[in-house]
Design brief:
The protein is α+β, with helices and mostly antiparallel strands and 274 residues long. Helices cover 33% and strands 18% of the residues.
């Protein structure tokens, strides 16, 4: 198995890295149990894993922590609250739009394009069958460049919608500009929040199942990310103190060298993409 520094180099260069067989059998069983509990009421998308105390153990998973600590060394790792789990039937639509998950999504506009952006998304796919080809498409190196591709995608979406959503056009267009990744259960995908990516699903299998988490360090990029998802996004990602004990949550993550820094007030930001 490659060393963490080799995976980190690939991640920094290309904007993503898929680590095969990242989790062991015990981890896989635990993740599967968490997913089943989250979707026990057949809700296809469950946000905010921090509001379900049975999910906390995944947020501090030791293999995740080991990778993140080495990747961010010497900075401390922060949990950034944007987390969710999906379980979608094969006849339910998946948003195919190319998008970024960061606050400043237009290339070159805002702090997210200055001083080494480092907010990471973690993708854990629960694809158990060999023929299951649910996954994700990513545009290599668009976390550090891509002014033209940003302009092209925004123009297609705003002025040529019929072409952009044409299935045949998208099939070839996506293959040309993107890289397709097929994570299996036990693999772990790390990608920068500001890389262009798009979900896709395999309609021949029963479900598209995945869990996504977010981490960073204490810097302007994490601050912008939290401000965006807590105060500007259409979904509230705050900790629900009526559901769970916040002090207990903070104690647990701090014991595992993971930190939390929730903003107390909304920050106006002209470069945020709503």
């Amino acid at each position: 198995m490659k060393k963490i520094m080799d995976y980190s180099a690939h991640l920094k260069k290309n904007g993503y890295v898929l680590i095969k067989n990242f989790f062991d059998k015990d981890d896989i069983k635990e993740i599967k149990d968490i997913s089943e509990k989250l979707h026990s009421k057949n809700i296809k998308s469950v946000p905010n894993l921090h509001n379900f105390n049975f999910s906390w153990k995944l947020l501090i998973n030791q293999k995740l922590m080991k990778f993140l600590k080495e990747f961010y060394n010497p900075d401390k790792v922060y949990y950034l609250y944007n987390s969710h789990s999906v379980k979608q039937k094969n006849d339910e639509p998946v948003d195919p739009n190319w998008h970024r998950d960061n606050a400043h999504r237009i290339f070159g506009k805002g702090d997210d394009w200055n001083n080494g952006y480092n907010v990471l998304r973690v993708g854990i796919y629960l694809n158990e069958k060999d023929k299951d080809t649910n996954g994700i498409r990513l545009i290599k190196k668009s976390h550090v460049g891509g002014k033209f591709i940003c302009f092209l995608l925004r123009t297609l979406r705003s002025k040529f919608k019929r072409l952009y959503f044409n299935k045949l056009f998208r099939y070839f267009f996506d293959k040309i500009i993107g890289t397709t990744v097929y994570p299996k259960f036990g693999d772990c995908l790390f990608f920068y929040a500001n890389i262009y990516h798009a979900a896709f699903r395999d309609k021949s299998v029963g479900y598209r199942k995945a869990i996504f988490l977010s981490y960073g360090t204490k810097n302007i990029h994490s601050e912008n990310f939290l401000n965006y998802y807590i105060f500007h996004h259409n979904m509230d990602h705050r900790f629900d103190k009526e559901k769970n004990n916040f002090d207990e949550f903070i104690k647990l993550i701090n014991q595992n060298d993971l930190y939390s820094n929730l903003p107390s007030e909304r920050k106006l930001d002209k470069d945020i993409t709503i």
